[in-house]
Every structure is written in structure tokens, then in C-alpha cells.
Write a structure and sequence with these properties.
- By secondary structure, this protein is α/β, with parallel strands linked by helices.
Length: about 290
């Protein structure tokens, strides 16, 4: 009978999964193993390492299996990933003077949304924030606890870091636009599921079409996946300019990841400098 994980092991596993998610690895599979063979291998391992402590991260029950290199075991087929749905056609351009009203129409159409299961745990829907005339738009994954409470994107610790990143580019938060792939908080801040992203992302694309930013910045692997329509490791997407809906797209780390690993801030700054180059911006003078 499966046993529950102790809090320390659970937190360690959650930290590792978040790390893999930030690298663009978001789907994991458990391959079935013959119980008799598994028991035999366990007895052999016990005899060999009777006094050696095992790592809870690798051998915690219900999380993953230790797979021995055995010629008698063949790889089990892995279910194919569901493809990312094609984005909607690009909507007609909206005059700058009418963009705020056009965004409000999208918000009104969303209403008190119940289109996917995320609404069940929602406190406030998080539509977007910023200037309808923004030349620069940031897209994240989804609201967290602070955002769900306030109804605004990026207002927690990750939002404070994003504000600092925007300021380092020589801009103010009210000069850019910020939105997410999904507009309701996923339980436990998990990655949005396929149904949730497919339901909500068309509204994001409509926001992009109304604002028509010169540059989009995808914050993290989930945002990059839905904007580009394919799953790729974040490392392979960074450092270059992509094209999405007639707009230049730059991919960088999510601010929440940078809080967990501050060593990557230098790399994120290099990504933002690419965006600045596309916008013709120079960093403000230090003083």
C-alpha cells in the first residue's frame, strides 16, 4: 500500500519538478515494471547495500522507479504528447485610440468565466495590466496567490523582480503590458493543463492582436510553448529573436525561477538586452 511522503521529501520533490519545469520539461511518465522482477532486484540491492542509506529524492514511493539496466526489460511505449492547438487567425488591427475599448470588450466577453476547471478555485480573474499602446508586452504562465487575491498579474515577489527588470530597461510598468497564458490560478501554482491553456490562450492572442506590441517577452517555458505552438527546451529558445503574429518574440526565464536561482539573472539580462535592441532602447544612466 502506498505511503504518503514526509513533508521534507515532498518539498524536495516539488523543488526539483519546478526546476525541470523552468527548463521546459513539463511532462513525466512512470513506466510499469514487473512486480516480481522489482522485488528480486530490491532483494539484490538490499544484500549489496545493507548499510547504505538511499536517497529519498530518487527512491520515494509513488514518485519514480529505479530502473535497472536489464536486457529482459524493454522500454514501454510512452503516450504521445498532445499537440498545442493552432492559434486563431490574426485579428484586424485596431486604431491606437480604440485599443483600450477593444481590450475591455475582450474582458467583457470572458465575463465570470467557467469555461475550464480552473474557475472552481479562482478568487479573482487576472486579465492583464498596462498600457494598451505598449511597444513591449510580457507574457507569463498564470496567476499565483497574490495575483489571484488582487486580480492583477505579477504583483507578488516575482512581480517585484519583474518591475525591477522593466526599470532596468529604462521603462515604467505602466508603459508595458503584462498578461498570462491562463487567467485563473492553477491549484498549487502547477503548470496549466492542456485543456486549460487551449481554452484561455485564444483570449491572450486577441490581447496581443489589439495591442500589437513591437516586442513580446515570454517569461518561462510555458509562455514560450503556447506562444510558439511547440514544446522546446528553454535553452534552445533563448538568445535569438522569434516571430509570433507579426511581432518579435524574445524568450527568457520566469522571474520566479530567477528568485530560486539568482545566478541566472545575468542570463535574463542578456535576453532583455536583445529586446531592448529591437526596441531601440538604451539602459538608463546609473546615478
Amino acid at each position: 500500500m502506498a505511503q504518503s511522503l514526509n513533508p521534507a521529501t515532498r518539498e524536495a520533490l516539488l523543488t526539483r519538478v519546478r526546476f525541470y519545469r523552468d527548463l521546459g520539461l513539463t511532462e513525466f511518465y512512470r513506466r510499469p515494471v514487473d512486480p516480481a522482477l522489482l522485488a528480486q532486484l530490491a532483494e539484490q540491492e538490499s544484500a549489496q547495500t545493507l548499510h547504505s542509506p538511499s536517497s529519498p529524492l530518487l527512491f520515494a514511493e509513488g514518485v519514480g522507479d529505479h530502473e535497472p539496466a536489464s536486457a529482459s526489460l524493454e522500454d514501454q511505449p510512452i503516450p504521445p504528447r498532445k499537440p498545442i492547438p493552432a492559434p486563431p487567425q490574426i485579428f484586424a488591427a485596431v486604431p491606437a485610440a480604440d485599443r483600450a475599448a477593444a481590450l475591455q470588450l475582450i474582458r467583457d466577453e470572458i465575463g465570470e468565466c467557467t469555461r475550464c476547471p480552473l474557475h472552481k478555485g479562482r478568487n479573482k480573474l487576472v486579465f492583464g495590466d498596462g498600457s494598451p499602446a505598449a511597444r513591449l508586452m510580457f507574457v507569463g504562465e498564470g496567476p499565483g496567490a497574490d495575483e489571484d487575491a488582487q486580480g492583477l498579474p505579477f504583483v507578488g515577489k516575482a512581480g517585484q523582480l519583474l518591475n525591477n527588470m522593466i526599470a532596468a530597461m529604462g521603462l515604467r510598468r505602466d508603459e508595458v503590458y503584462i498578461a498570462n497564458v491562463v487567467k485563473c490560478r492553477p491549484p498549487g501554482n502547477r503548470v496549466p493543463e492542456q485543456e486549460e491553456g487551449a481554452t484561455c490562450s485564444p483570449f491572450l492572442f486577441r490581447q496581443i492582436d489589439v495591442i500589437r506590441p513591437q516586442v513580446l517577452v515570454a517569461l518561462g517555458a510555458t509562455a514560450a510553448t503556447w506562444l510558439l505552438g511547440s514544446r522546446q527546451p528553454l535553452a534552445g529558445l533563448r538568445g535569438r529573436v522569434h516571430s509570433v503574429r507579426g511581432t518579435q518574440l524574445i524568450v527568457t526565464y520566469h522571474p520566479a525561477y530567477l528568485l530560486r536561482d539568482p545566478r541566472q539573472k545575468k542570463e535574463a539580462w542578456a535576453d532583455l538586452q536583445i529586446a531592448m535592441r529591437e526596441l531601440g532602447l538604451t539602459p538608463p544612466a546609473k546615478g
